[in-house]
Automatic annotation (TrEMBL):
It comes from Actinomadura alba. The lineage of its organism: Bacteria, Bacillati, Actinomycetota, Actinomycetes, Streptosporangiales. InterPro entries: Class-I_Pyr_Nuc-Dis_Oxidored, FAD/NAD-bd_sf, FAD/NAD-binding_dom, FAD/NAD-linked_Rdtase_dimer_sf, Pyr_nuc-diS_OxRdtase, Pyr_nucl-diS_OxRdtase_dimer. Belongs to the class-I pyridine nucleotide-disulfide oxidoreductase family. This is NAD(P)/FAD-dependent oxidoreductase. SUPFAM superfamilies: FAD/NAD(P)-binding domain, FAD/NAD-linked reductases, dimerisation (C-terminal) domain.
Length: 473
């Protein structure tokens, strides 16, 4: 092994989150190395957020066009053209641009598998099999992301199911598809692949609704849309056995009610688990079991006042790119403050957003966006809750968007303090409304103040006026 290279900060994992930690730490006056085993840019850039949205965009646009009389698509969606555009959005799986971004920070990019190797140390197995030793003066940050969870269903692993990777990088859309799971991945990928050629798509959803962590009407409206478009959604059903006798041949998925579904592919969308395996946690006395728990400055709680930090999917707080990048800004800045002896307890150096209920958009048709707590979460947390709902289709700005506009909105109010705890919008063209709700929830804007934020006529944002009138303002 060669001599060790020394940096102020070592980041393991160059997904959107790891890259941003390095960016902030260097901005704060430190040196940084970023270790990446596969592609700089992470899951998000190549196999998750970006390609899935590239696949969904034409589907949403086609649906929008179909809702305006006088506009017509000239034929079905050209799947080959959509896949070609998807390939462009993922830079044809070439991470040269991302590596360039890291080097411009400037930070040192190290290609290879990183592992902790004792306090403040890491070692990297490079692609040619060499080992490179790194030492950090101040901090090591684990930003290794997450891996898909494959449930222990007999025959499922052997059937080589698709995960988000195969689904987002699809080259040949299977005609018959079974999707296990009704969360964000299951919903987004079912709708995209169904519209692009998976005409026989069946979803096995263990819960009694889609997106079961959102307000119930969100999953119901989405299920109506799926069923109208021909996606077969089976609620309360789990896969119990899978058979694929010939590798690459048809696959049969058996459900717990005795029904069986034959398909060309099966997509597992049953959640993700923090990537903590084989990253050397045992060398610093930690177990590789579950998320790496952190305090509000992103420091691992198992090593108090220590040098180890964990950000993004690997800490299990909110598996969303924007939340991981927010944590990265906190983390990079706090490490720099501590290293330079500056105050490390300023408000911007603590994560306060993750516990409030992260903003999230599911890019389906209809779009589903939510921030903060649902009504049932707010009640469980002991707030004096009053919740109001409104039919989005009755808003002028919305029904101008589309004939038969279907959507719904809800705000959950802490009735004692008259501030918002959570907001949900479901419908076409609602995604850009979400940030107004995020501001109101995060800043705890009193409703009596919010009342004076007048939405323009005729925009979809007049939903705010209607919700507040429903509340009694
Ligand atoms: C299909 C899909 C769609 C999604 N869509 C959205 C969306 O629209 N919006 C949104 O906010 N979120 C979305 N997400 C979630 C989002 O992808 C993740 O929250 C985000 O990628 C987390 O970023 P990260 O940097 O923590 O991890 P990752 O993006 O997983 O990056 C981790 C990186 O670390 C590397 N790595 C791991 N272990 C090592 C090691 N030992 N040594 C070196 N390198 C290592 C990996 O190769 C990887 O590049 C989606 C997820 C999926 C699956
Ligand atoms: N647009 C977005 O923001 C977006 C899109 C995709 C994914 N993501 C994020 O990526 C992560 C992974 O998403 P996901 O949908 O895979 O996970 P998830 O955990 O959000 O949903 C998985 C679903 O599968 C179900 N499930 C779990 N085990 C099962 C089993 N054995 N049989 C049947 N059903 C089972 C769960 O009840 C749940 O409804 C999430 O954190 C999600 O928020 C975000």
């Amino acid at each position: 092994m060669a001599d060790e290279d020394v940096f102020d900060v070592i980041v393991i994992g160059a997904g959107p989150v790891g890259e941003n930690v390095a960016g902030r730490a260097v901005r704060g006056g430190l040196t940084a190395a970023v270790v990446e085993e596969r592609l700089a840019g992470g899951e998000c850039a190549y196999y998750a957020c970006i390609p899935s949205k590239a696949l969904l965009r034409p589907v949403g646009l086609a649906a929008e066009v179909s809702r305006i009389p006088g506009l017509e698509l000239r034929g079905p969606i050209d799947t080959a053209a959509v896949l070609a555009r998807r390939d462009k959005t993922v830079s044809h799986l070439d991470d040269g641009g991302q590596v360039g971004w890291i080097e411009n920070v400037p930070a040192t990019f190290v290609r290879g598998r990183g592992r902790l190797a004792g306090p403040l140390r890491a070692e990297v197995t490079t692609p040619d099999g060499d080992t490179r030793a790194l030492r950090a003066r101040h901090a090591v940050v684990v930003a290794t992301g997450s891996d898909p969870y494959i449930p222990d269903v007999p025959g499922l692993r052997e059937a080589r199911p698709w995960t988000n990777r195969e689904a987002t990088s699809v080259q040949q859309v299977p005609k018959r598809l079974v999707v296990i799971g009704g969360g964000p991945v299951g919903c987004e990928m079912s709708q995209a692949l169904h519209a692009l050629g998976a005409h026989e798509t069946t979803m096995l959803v263990r819960a009694d609704r889609l997106l079961d962590r959102t307000e119930p009407f969100a999953g119901e409206l989405l299920a109506n849309s799926f069923q109208e478009s021909g996606i077969d959604v089976r609620f309360g059903r789990s896969a119990v056995r899978v058979e694929r006798p010939v590798p690459g041949g048809p696959v049969t998925v058996h459900a717990d009610d005795g029904s069986r579904f034959e398909a060309d592919e099966v997509l597992v969308a049953t959640g993700r688990r923090p990537a903590v395996g084989d990253i050397g946690l045992e060398t610093v006395g930690l177990e590789a079991r579950g998320p790496i728990e952190v305090d509000a400055s992103m420091r691992a709680t198992a090593l108090p006042d220590g040098w180890l930090y964990a950000v993004g999917d690997v800490n299990g707080r909110n598996m969303l790119t924007h939340m991981g990048k927010y944590q990265a800004r906190v983390c990079g800045d706090v490490i720099a403050a501590r290293a330079k002896g500056r105050p490390d307890d300023l408000p911007a150096l603590r994560d306060t957003a993750d516990d409030r209920g992260a903003p999230q958009v599911i890019f389906t048709d209809p779009e589903v966006c939510a921030v903060g707590r649902t009504e049932s979460q707010a009640r469980a947390d002991g707030f004096a809750v009053r919740a109001v709902e409104y039919d989005m289709g009755a808003v002028s700005g919305a029904y101008l968007q589309a004939d038969d506009y279907t959507g719904r909105a809800k705000m959950v109010v802490d009735d004692g303090r008259r501030v918002l705890l959570g907001v949900t919008f479901v419908g076409p063209a609602v995604v850009d409304l979400l940030h107004s709700a995020t501001i109101a929830v995060t800043a705890e804007v009193p409703l009596d103040q919010l009342w004076h934020a007048v939405p323009s006529f005729p925009t979809v944002s007049e939903i705010w006026l209607h919700l507040m009138e429903e509340y009694g303002l």
